[in-house]
Amino acid sequence: MYKLFAVFSGVLIALMVTCNGSLSRNIGDELSLIVIHLLGLITIVGILIIRKKDVPKLKNIPIYLFSAGALGVFMVFSNNICFNYLGVSLTLALGLLGQSIASCIIDHFGLFGMEVSKFKKEKLFGFILIFIGIISMVIY
């Protein structure tokens, strides 16, 4: 079930990058970031109201975990810029390569409190396939 949900998440990311990039092309990079994140805030507030959830307590949470919001702004900003020069497919392919590399490093060293999951050399085959796919996307 969770694997299917992860695939659905990937579909949403492709739709998000397309919509965000098109919005950025029409109203500019900075204004699009404001609109995107303002609508995200309104959406999550609506979800909290509908589900009748209280805002959770923020005590005992490491301060670095709050950097995710700023990282999200930089991610959307860079996606918007890349979308306009590379298109959706190449932007997402390169982004997924970056995510895969970063996630392997985080797993291998157990960063951010994650359980250690050592890198296995068999994963290199997957990285090679991704790299070949990206090269073919760039060439063709």
Q: Helix content range of the residues, please?
A: over 70%
Low-confidence stretches: none
Radius of gyration using CA atoms only: 18 Å
| Gross geometry | globular
Percent of sequence in beta strands: under 5%
The average pLDDT score comes to: 93
Total domain modules? 1
SS-derived structural category: mainly alpha
SSE order, one letter for each helix or strand: HHHH
Tally of individual helices: 4
State the major sheet. Answer: none
Can you walk through the features of this model?
This is Transporter family-2 protein. Pfam families: DMT_YdcZ. Keywords: Membrane, Transmembrane, Transmembrane helix. The chain crosses the membrane at residues 31-50, 62-86, 92-112, 124-139. The chain is mainly α and 140 residues long. The protein has one domain (2-139). 76% of the residues lie in helices and 0% in strands. It contains 4 helices and no strands. α1 packs across α2 (29-50), α1 runs antiparallel to α3 and α2 (29-50) packs across α3 (68-109). The longest helix has 42 residues, at 68-109. The protein is globular and about 45 Å long.
